[in-house]
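Priority: medium. Attachment 1 of 2:
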């Protein structure tokens, strides 16, 4: 597994505390001594987060977009230069194997994904090239994230005249680019920079006013925004509808519902047109007075019966202990739940509306005269 398993050089920054050794974020700083202050900086001012444990690779070749379009869930055949999108790789049964972000810049498609899963995604794509003019290969680049409304004050340090729009890309001098994302906050930007330049960029941004923030801050804001993380908030049964990944680029989704065939499309179409997902992603508020905490993957129970799976658990600077969970669709929002020894309650605003009849079901009923 290459560079992502190596501890980030930014762990030597003052106050840096690494993620738990057994977790997916051990290679980067979890916080710098003030977790809630770092979250406030990311939400209200401007903070820089080390996410250099993400796996980055490139795809070059004239058919890079049209080829990837045929083997993934998003509509990217005509993405356009300096544009980005979110995308999924599904198995034959429509279960999510990989979630990734892609950006096209000057003839190269850049892809970044979860560090532990990146080599598998790259290996799969390399096997699927066949005769297409597309060449996936590793790239020694790293990801930093800038969060907060005062990012606009850093255009000079970034070397850009103006900030890009959502899913748009601005090239950086010396290699790499700046990309705006629609989450975890309204003001979220990723920098993909040469890994050898990671420390230089960190110093440049912090000297310009960005406050260091650990991944704890990013994760807390991500959970509050109801954005799942693959392998943490999902399991090996998760389908896109359950994790809120349905939608084209304009909807900030990762699954376009009107495109050609790709692996797993049958399940996506069947659920969208005829069925309902068995589970859905919700935000849980947890009782922080419990003596012990559950862990990711633990069951969520109602009356002693398992009704869901716990994902990311994190302390939010305003909301307190919160978590994402995949809960059975039939569970009402006011159901008393437990996550381990902690009482849990569904945030009613996080419950998706799924009472509209599917187009396919309506068509079938019309054919049957109903």
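Attachment 2 of 2:
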């Amino acid at each position: 597994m290459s560079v992502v398993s190596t501890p980030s050089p930014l762990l030597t920054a003052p106050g840096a505390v690494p993620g738990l050794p057994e977790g997916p974020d051990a290679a980067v700083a979890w916080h710098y001594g003030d977790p809630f202050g770092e979250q406030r900086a990311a939400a209200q001012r401007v903070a820089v987060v080390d996410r250099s444990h993400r796996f980055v690779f490139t795809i070059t070749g004239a058919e890079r977009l049209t080829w990837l379009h045929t083997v993934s869930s998003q509509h990217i055949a005509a993405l356009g230069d300096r544009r980005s999108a979110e995308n999924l790789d599904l198995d034959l049964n429509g279960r999510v194997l990989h979630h990734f972000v892609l950006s096209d810049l000057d003839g190269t498609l850049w892809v970044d994904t979860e560090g532990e899963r990146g080599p598998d995604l790259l290996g799969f794509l390399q096997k699927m090239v066949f005769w297409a003019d597309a060449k996936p290969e590793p790239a020694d680049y790293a990801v930093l994230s800038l969060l907060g409304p005062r990012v606009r004050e850093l255009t000079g340090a970034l070397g850009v005249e103006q900030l890009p729009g959502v899913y748009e890309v601005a090239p950086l001098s010396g290699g790499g680019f700046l990309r705006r994302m629609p989450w975890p906050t309204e003001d979220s930007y990723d920098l993909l920079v040469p890994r050898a330049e990671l420390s230089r960029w960190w110093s440049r941004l912090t000297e310009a006013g960005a406050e260091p923030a650990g991944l704890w801050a990013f994760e807390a804001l991500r959970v509050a925004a109801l954005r799942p993380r693959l392998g943490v908030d999902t399991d090996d049964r998760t389908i896109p509808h359950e994790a809120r990944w349905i939608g084209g680029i304009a909807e900030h989704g990762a699954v376009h519902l009107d495109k050609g065939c790709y692996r797993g499309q049958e399940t996506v179409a069947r659920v969208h047109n005829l069925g309902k997902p068995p589970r859905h992603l919700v935000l849980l508020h947890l009782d922080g007075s419990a003596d012990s905490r559950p862990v990711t993957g633990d069951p969520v129970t109602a009356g002693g019966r398992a009704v869901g799976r716990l994902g990311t658990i994190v302390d939010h600077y305003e909301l307190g202990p919160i978590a994402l969970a995949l809960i059975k669709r039939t569970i009402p929002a006011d159901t008393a739940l437990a996550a381990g020894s902690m009482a849990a309650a569904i945030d009613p605003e996080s419950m998706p509306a799924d009472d509209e009849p599917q187009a396919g079901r309506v068509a079938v009923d019309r054919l049957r005269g109903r």
